[in-house]
Amino acid sequence: MKLSLANVLLKPLLILFFATLIFTSCKNARHTAAPDLDAKLDKIFASVPDFSGVLLVAEKGKPVYHKAFGYKSFLTKEPMETTTIFELASVSKQFTAMTIMQMKEAGKLSFDDPVGRYIPGLPYTGITIRHLLTHTSGLPDYQQVMDEHWDKNKVAGNADNIAYLIQYHPAKHFEPGTKYEYSNTGFMLLASITEKVSGEDFIEFCRKRFFVPLKMTSTDIRTLDQKKKLKNLALGHIYVKDKQRYVPADSFPQFNYAIWLGNRKGPGRVSSTSADLLKWDRILYSNTLIKAETLQEAFTPAHLNNGSISNYGFGWKIKETKRGKVVWHDGDNPGYATEFIRYIDTDKTIILLCNNAHAKMPEILKSVEALVEEE
User: Fold this and answer.
1) Where does the record place the Beta-lactamase-related domain (predicted)?
2) How far is 318 from 339, CA to CA, in rounded Å?
3) Could you read off the pLDDT of 160-198 as tens digits, one per residue?
4) pLDDT (tens digit, 9 = 90+) per residue, 259-299?
């Protein structure tokens, strides 16, 4: 498939146009809900006073509730702000999936291409790009391989992860397409495939195609050193019962994989704000990044070989509610818990970002969802 010069020139202009509209609407939007909803949401967080994070609820792109709770750092007691940057963890996967969908529309690949065409030497046959996108590949966990064999005084990237999968060749968990099993390995490979077919570094690809044109000014795929320099980053925390307080998650040796796998691309590593995620939410309604039919495929549950369906499309989890179809994703990094929920039939959005991995996060989210679905 070849793109005409007109299409090549028009798409960036369309993206810039919609990004400007999104930025303006977000800037001018009210940040409080109707009194009843506002009071009910406030009551939820009043019941968990040690919760730390940000909640944004939007209707048709307009923030109706946007508040911050807790601290960026429990050591310094610096108050959380609605503009604070969080690690998104696996919420990042939707950006990785979007890079693949754009490359498909550019004629650089097909969803049913064998992965081995783009990752030479990978010792797993019968796996397609579609299997990677939908977590149905059966691939083993690259992180476990690296944990067992990698020199943790070094920082590993995708090339290292792939080399170790080839060298140590752990067995597949199942035959491709027969089961659903969440796989960070699959999304690590997807980022490398994007690099292969585009000829661009994955991080630069995301910056050039998404973060910069959409004016997601607080969003990036950052190194550890870059994150240390951020003044508005929410640090991840974990509650230590013996100390009866929250401590930085990076003080625990078992969580230091974020350091020695610090250059991985694809499964996570995007850091962002609630407002920037709302900009991303809005552009997904515009069909300027990809065609509507391609995005619809991303929002369609995968079919397994036996005819059953999973709850996952391309970088998105999918569920049906009384308010129609919902596409969503959660993320979990040491000290962080993130939720990005889009009611695409009624155009409502929930963005909940937490930096103290609160034990009541599922309960909080359930209550917020119930209120939003009532409106």
Assistant:
1) 42-359
2) 13
3) 999 999 999 999 999 999 999 999 999 999 999 999 999
4) 899 999 999 999 999 999 999 999 999 999 999 999 999 99
Beta carbons within 8 Å of 176's beta carbon, 6+ residues apart: 126, 127, 128, 131, 136, 137, 138
CATH class of the domain defined by 5-374: alpha beta
From residue 369, give the alpha-carbon distance in Å to each of 77, 87, 316: 29, 22, 18
Rounded to whole angstroms, the Cα distance separating 296 from 294 reads 5
Catalytic residue list contains 47: no
pLDDT band at 227, cuts 50/70/90?
very high
Which three-class secondary structure string do you get for 318-346? EEEECCEEEEEEEEEECCEEEEEEEECCC
pLDDT of residue 107: 98
Minimal CA–CA distance to 190: which of 167, 161, 223? Answer: 161
pTM for this structure? 0.90
CB 56 within 8 A of CB 37: no
Q: Which of 341, 335, 331 is nearest to 359 (CA)?
A: 335
Q: Indicate the pLDDT class of residue 35, thresholds 50, 70 and 90.
A: confident
- Residue 325 contacts by C-beta under 8 Å, 6 or more apart in sequence? 299, 318, 319, 343, 344, 345
Residue-averaged pLDDT of the chain: 92
Catalytic entry in 73, 90, 271, 274 = 90
Helix then strand then coil, in percent of the chain rounded to 5, is 40, 20, 40
Residues comprising the chain, all counted: 375
Other residues' Cβ atoms within 10 Å of the Cβ of residue 299:
17
272 phi-psi bin (left φ>0, alpha ψ -120 to 50, beta other): beta
Query: How many other CB atoms are found less than 10 A from the CB of residue 228?
Result: 9
